[in-house]
Recover the amino acids of this structure.
């Protein structure tokens, strides 16, 4: 790289970078040798000018190589992985993993704690007493070989350039760029060693991508990177114009996942999980049926085995009141009769975060017990005064405040409203 200034100037003036220049820049980001102000100047230039598909792939590969790759050589091939771009009430992973295990498609999933409306999958699983995620790659592989699935925390050194870039993007309004999001997501999947990747790209008013066109573009960019990196990749576009599952909150989402698995995955959450499982099972070259794994009860038995293998109390599966629960519940009621037409999904997510279910800063503590239960879906009829939400809050004042926010987040109309599909597209 002739100089960082030249690199910034190239992008500022709309020129494409060479692979070598991208590698040198990413190495400088990861090592800390390029100051934040130069990195952020480049980020804004890339946000405004864009990156072409070749540059996006080069950026992704350089980011994936910026730290240590997860060594999954002990896992049977192909190694499969799944990623969600993030939404509200998205407790897919805790039930997808045991379904895959029951289909004999082993998976080691690395998840984050992360910032969001609720904690990440690691936080949700932490609601199960004793469940450990601080396991070494060797321990995770041993559990996945024995039980069929394992869940660990992303190591600090997985794609460190992404961590450095993401922190600066977050502080400079440069998160919402399709090439930058795609490179960020895929750098971590590639560094985590996956051969076959299924992506759940959320679309709607609770997602990064609000409209189908931009979600489709993101999905196409993600799939193109996967192909370019030699990893078979499929993306499903799934609806995020309402919370995916009936619960938002860490322990509540684990409970909702258990209920969904036990009742045959017939709800919206289960529909999304089975669609993702079908893709992964097929990619792995298996003809097992995820639906059969659920309906036969094998998946719920796998969930117990998996929880126990990671040191957790598997009796929560049959005795969910053992999960953290707060004592104070408030209901938010429908302001009028009619049909539920729309909800402001991100407002519902923010309400859960304000209860303490999610973090705003990395150092924030989260409250595993608190959250929101949604009693109605879009297309459901409602009576005036009927409960729409149950709020589990740490104190009464907050419960009232959040209840009012939730009531205002619903649009109820006079005429019947169609239910909306969960899976709205597939790219791959
Ligand atoms: N998720 C990521 O991992 N990175 C982004 O840039 C956006 C969402």
């Amino acid at each position: 790289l002739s100089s960082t200034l030249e690199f910034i100037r190239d992008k500022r003036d709309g020129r494409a970078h060479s692979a070598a220049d991208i590698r040198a820049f990413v190495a400088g980001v990861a090592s800390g040798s390029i100051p934040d102000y130069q990195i952020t100047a480049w980020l804004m230039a890339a946000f405004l000018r864009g990156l072409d598909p070749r540059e996006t792939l080069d950026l992704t590969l350089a980011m994936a190589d910026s730290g240590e790759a997860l060594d999954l050589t002990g896992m049977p091939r192909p190694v499969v992985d799944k990623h969600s771009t993030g939404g509200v009430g998205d407790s897919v992973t805790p039930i997808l993993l045991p379904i895959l295990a029951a289909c004999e498609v082993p998976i080691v999933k690395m998840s984050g704690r992360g910032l969001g409306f609720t904690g990440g999958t690691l936080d949700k699983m932490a609601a199960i007493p004793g469940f450990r995620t601080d396991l070494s790659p060797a321990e995770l592989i041993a559990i996945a070989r024995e039980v069929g699935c394992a869940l660990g925390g992303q190591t600090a050194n997985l794609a460190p350039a992404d961590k450095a870039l993401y922190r600066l993007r977050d502080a400079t309004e440069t998160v919402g760029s399709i090439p930058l999001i795609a490179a960020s997501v895929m750098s971590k999947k590639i560094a985590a060693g996956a051969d076959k990747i299924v992506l759940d790209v959320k679309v709607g008013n609770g997602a990064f991508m609000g409209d189908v066109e931009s979600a489709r573009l993101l999905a196409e960019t993600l799939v193109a990177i996967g192909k370019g990196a030699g990893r078979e990749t499929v993306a499903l576009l799934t609806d995020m114009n309402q919370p995916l599952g009936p619960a938002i909150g860490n322990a509540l989402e684990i409970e909702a996942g258990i209920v969904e698995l036990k009742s045959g995955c017939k709800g919206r959450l289960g529909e999304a999980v089975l669609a993702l499982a079908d893709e992964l099972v097929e990619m792995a070259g298996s003809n097992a049926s995820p639906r059969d794994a659920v309906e036969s009860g094998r998946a719920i038995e796998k969930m117990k085995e998996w929880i126990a293998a990671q040191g957790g109390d598997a009796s929560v599966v049959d005795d969910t009141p053992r999960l953290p629960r707060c004592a104070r519940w408030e209901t938010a009621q429908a302001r009028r009769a009619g049909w539920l037409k729309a909800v402001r999904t991100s407002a519902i997510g923010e309400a859960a975060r304000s209860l303490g279910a999610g973090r705003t800063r990395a150092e924030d503590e989260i409250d595993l017990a608190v959250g929101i239960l949604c009693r109605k879906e879009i297309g459901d009829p409602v009576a005036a005064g009927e409960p729409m939400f149950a709020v589990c809050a740490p104190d009464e004042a907050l419960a009232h405040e959040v209840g009012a926010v939730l009531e205002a987040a619903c649009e109820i109309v006079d005429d019947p409203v169609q239910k909306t599909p969960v899976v709205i597209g597939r790219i791959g």
